[in-house]
Structures are given as C-alpha cells and as structure tokens.
Structure prediction request, 155 residues.
Amino acid sequence: MLEHLVGLAAVSVLAAMEQAYFSLQVVYARRKYSVSPPSTSGPPEFDRVFRAQVNCTEYFPIFITVLWTAGLFFHQGVSSLCGLLYLYSRYHYFHGYRQSPQQRLAPLYLGGQILWVLIGLSSLGVVCSFSRIYAGVDLVDLVSSCLTSDPTADL
Prediction:
C-alpha cells in the first residue's frame, strides 16, 4: 500500500521543505533589514519577503488537503504532478514578490489554477467513491459504458 503513496509523500516533504525555506528567508530578511520580532513591518523589501512567506503559508493547508484527497480518490500520479507544478509556481511567486509586487502575479495565477484543478480532481474522486460505496453505482463504469457503447446495437 505504501508504494502507492510515495509520490504524494515525496511532494508533501518537498512542500514542507519549501515552507521551511520561505521561513528562513524571513529570518534572513529580519537580520538584513533590522526588523526584530514581533514586528511584522519594516522597509518595503522586508515587507515583500514577509508577505510572500505569509501568503504561501496561508495556502499551504488547502494545498496539502487537496493534494492528498486527489491522490487518494482520483490518481496519485496526476495529483503528484499537479503538486510539483504548484510548488514550482509558489517558488516563483515568492521570488517574484521579493523583487516587486507585480512580478508575483503570473505565478500566483498559475498556482491558483493548479489548486482549482486539484479541488476538481478531489471532488470528482470523492463523488465517484461515495456513489460506488454508498449508492452501489460505479460512475466511472457507467460513463465508460455510455461512451463505448454502440448506439445502433439495439436496432
């Protein structure tokens, strides 16, 4: 069973490492710009690093939830690939935001689109599993048989 989860686990560990990296960037920015905790504002350069890290942290629970739900109920490979693309977009979001607020937008939109794909895959997987387990209807087989059946066979 665990071999079926290794992709999701690998993406999850990479995601945790990315979050740790973002947090360390805030520590380095605090030192560089002399912003002592608990203060959360300082020069614009510090503010951008801090906001980028906070924004990434805010989306992390959503990402992990839909990554695992899509992986368990839809397909681990597709979910893991989406997860890697999301981490890539977040990395570029962070560094774009560090440079200027405008440079964060393209990676932000890409990451949002990937999250919506994962939400859709999660929902589809859960609905199909729910209908199979509790209603006795396998929606995948039903759709597959409708798509592959010959409409002239009954004539």
About this structure: Helices lie at 6-33, 44-73, 76-99, 105-134, 139-148. The mean pLDDT is 94. The first helix runs from residue 6 to 33.
